[in-house]
Amino acid sequence: MFDKERLLKIQELDKAIIEQLDDKQLAAFSIAAGSLTDDFPSISERVKSALEQKDIAALTKLLTDICGILRLISASKLAESCIAMIQTLGETKYEDLQAGVIDFLKSVSALSIDLQMAEFKEIPGQQESNNEESAAKNTILAVDDRHFFLTAIKTMLLDTGYSVTCINSGAAALNYLKNHRPDLFILDIEMPGMDGYELATRIKASGQTAPIIFLTGNAGRDSVVKALSSGAADFLVKPVTKDQLLERVGRYIKPEIIEE
């Protein structure tokens, strides 16, 4: 069963409702949350398929199913945005509908990952955020095989007080770490040669203790458990916005104050 204190840290959940849950209600919440985390990857793929085929009837049913689960777990704002989207499915321009549905799926995916992190709190390697030792540090190592994504990360963190080093392979990252100790890692999971799971495991084995944030598009239970087991502290769901990046990074390290 979920720990209520961890649930209260999940932004998408209605904290006023979560605070009032008794043990019986928390057990029911756990069942509903489990349904979301177990079923969402397959539902998400079916939503994308219906969207591609412009099957409004199927899309309506699938989104209604998601909305029902969101209501059960008190993800009120997400549920409301889902209802609003359903009500305008037949009237919205396809390009706008596509963008709205994909953005909604990304938000639900992020919620699913946060729920799994709250559920699997005992898995070795998970870390709590913002301890005193990390609060004053600001160096970040970002590893992704795609140059455009590294550029995006560096651009979003430009002039924010963080020092960012970008590397495009696991092997190069391990070589860099022979002489450096970043305060935070941002690792893509899907990389050729050495994926993010293996890289995270080897980073931890080398004695590096900084938190690891994984970049992922997969909210599946197996993927999340594997990431946490290999040392993940947190996740960012792609594509990432500047606000999302700063919020996640800020949980673990604080930027250096830039003097005017």
Helix content: 40-55%
Number of discrete helical segments? 11
Question: Beta fraction of the residues?
Answer: 5-15%
Strand segment tally? 5
Question: Quick summary of this structure?
Answer:
This protein has 260 residues and is an alpha/beta fold. The protein has 11 helices and 5 strands; from the N terminus they run ααααααβαβαβαβαβα.
Characterise this structure.
- This protein is an alpha/beta fold and 260 residues long.
- Helices cover 54% and strands 10% of the residues.
- It has a five-stranded parallel beta sheet with strand order 2-1-3-4-5, with helices on both faces.
- Helix 5 packs antiparallel against helix 6 (94-119) and helix 8 runs parallel beside helix 9 (196-205).
- It is globular, with a radius of gyration of 19 Å.
- It starts with a helix and ends in a 10-residue tail after the last helix.
Q: Which tags fit this structure?
A:
10% strand; Four Helix Bundle (Hemerythrin (Met), subunit A); 54% helix; single chain; 5-stranded parallel β-sheet; Rossmann fold; alpha/beta; globular; 260 residues; 2 domains
Secondary structure: elements and pairs:
Elements lengths: L3 H4 L7 H5 L3 H31 L2 H17 L3 H12 L6 H26 L19 E5 L3 H10 L6 E5 L2 H7 L7 E5 L7 H10 L6 E5 L4 H9 L2 E6 L4 H9 L10
Parallel strand pairs: 1-2, 1-3, 3-4, 4-5
